[in-house]
Amino acid sequence: MCGIVGYIGFRNATDVLLDGLRRLEYRGYDSAGVAVRTPEGLRVVKRSGKLSALEEALKGTGLEGPLGVGHTRWATHGPPRTLTPTPTPRRTGRSP
User: Fold this and answer.
1) CA separation, residue 59 to residues 1, 21, 63, 95 (Å)
2) Which conformational region is residue 82 in: left (phi greater than 0), alpha (psi within -120 to 50 degrees), or beta?
3) Which residue of 42, 48, 76, 93 has the fewest CB atoms within a 10 Å radius of its CB?
């Protein structure tokens, strides 16, 4: 079962999203990711495996912003891979 967490506010979205994803761990998942709006644009970090793998990948990235979304995924088909977790950004040609 998937879980989705979103945040808009004055705190660092990455911290809020990770806390929210931790609260959803009981639901079961095989991968997790976050997308955070930074001054440079949308940055996405995702990993297959436990939430601890995502937390490790985020260490030292300085990923901070006031807006973001986090997602846990349970693969319904195919094996869990680093490329398959969501969020998955799409290029639309429009300004965010």
Assistant:
1) 26, 16, 9, 29
2) alpha
3) 93
pTM of this structure = 0.79
Alpha-carbon span 5 to 20, nearest angstrom: 6
Q: What is the pLDDT of residues 1-33, one digit of tens each?
A: 688 999 999 999 999 999 999 998 877 788 899
Q: What is the pLDDT of residues 42-77, one digit of tens each?
A: 999 999 888 999 999 999 999 999 999 999 887 666
Residues 37 and 26: beta-carbon distance below 8 Å: no
Using DSSP, state whether 7 is helix, strand or coil: strand
Read out DSSP for 19-83?
Answer: HHHHHTGGG--SEEEEEEEETTEEEEEEEES-HHHHHHHHTTS----SEEEEEEE--SSS---TT
In the block, tokens 């709006």 appear at 37
